[in-house]
């Protein structure tokens, strides 16, 4: 996935040699006068602007829902019902059925690893009780102890699910995820006999995400929390934020060296509809200079005595002022020079 500069953008705070290259690219004129000379009024002028210059670097990415997570069976039995690929499963709903009994999705970071019954204590108990309360069941205290009151509420929950009301929770009855999940793909089919550890489905989060794999040379762009702009397949631009940065090593084939890339995951900060897997363009901020004076690159002059300047237009007279250049972005260049202020007019080629 190669980087592409926004049209007319030259990145970075440039050295004198790099500025000379930029001058060549934009075919800037050479000043024929010293910085204090006067001349007749030029035909075209623009005002020196005070603004924030932002230089963005574009990379190809993919729109999807992020990395998949496997849902594995914790029990033995026959798969009797599966969700459709692309379906969303929320808390309290069955993510699949085993022997015609629902395996229910709950929210949490700790996987189910033991039977919960009266007298059991631990963080897994509290996590389960938080889910039970979120599903509307009452009459117990949410804490780290599985009490008789918890067992009583569980019996009501099991009755609602069509399960035998035993008041204890076997780990094969539940699956934990961070939140609602989207079924990305199915790993089995109805009628298959499975055992503990068998993968039933692969799921993702429900929110659309963009992912980009950067070469290590572009690693400076991969900053967690940094904002980006994503051009969607429909041409709309959506703002986003980098939420995850990971190093991915791909094993080389036929004696070739391994390839290391940086995978960036982006969450949108405005509403974006799921479009399935699709190509997007992500604009990373490569440089930013707030509240600087800037003019179009075409306003720069190459001074005969060396360096660069702009031609100031003041009424019927003009003068050339030597400038130092900073960031080039979006066809503009940051300038500093003696006496320069926002609102002054500079000459540009007509």
CATH H level of the largest domain: which superfamily? PGBD-like superfamily/PGBD
Order of helices and strands: EHEEEEEEEHHEEEEEEEEEEEEEE
User: In percent, how much strand structure appears in the residues?
Assistant: 35-45%
Major sheet: size, sense and barrel closure?
A: 6 strands, antiparallel, barrel
Overall mean confidence score, pLDDT:
89
Shape: elongated
Written description of the protein model:
This protein is mainly β and about 350 residues long. It folds into three domains: about 120 residues, no CATH class; about 80 residues, Efflux pump adaptor protein, beta barrel domain (Elongation Factor Tu (Ef-tu), domain 3), CATH 2.40.30; about 140 residues, Orthogonal Bundle (Muramoyl-pentapeptide Carboxypeptidase, domain 1). The strands form three sheets. Strands 3-13-16-15-14-17 form a six-stranded antiparallel β-barrel. The protein has a five-stranded mixed sheet with strand order 9-8-7-5-11. Strands 4-12-10-6 form a four-stranded antiparallel sheet, with no helix packed on it. A hairpin with a 2-residue loop joins strand 20 and strand 21. The two termini are about 40 Å apart. About 25% of the residues are buried.
Question: What is the compact description of this entry?
Answer:
This protein is mainly beta and 350 residues long. It contains three helices and 22 strands. The chain has three domains: 3-57 and 288-348, no CATH class; 59-65 and 208-285, Efflux pump adaptor protein, beta barrel domain (Elongation Factor Tu (Ef-tu), domain 3), CATH 2.40.30.170; 69-204, Orthogonal Bundle (Muramoyl-pentapeptide Carboxypeptidase, domain 1), CATH 1.10.101.10.
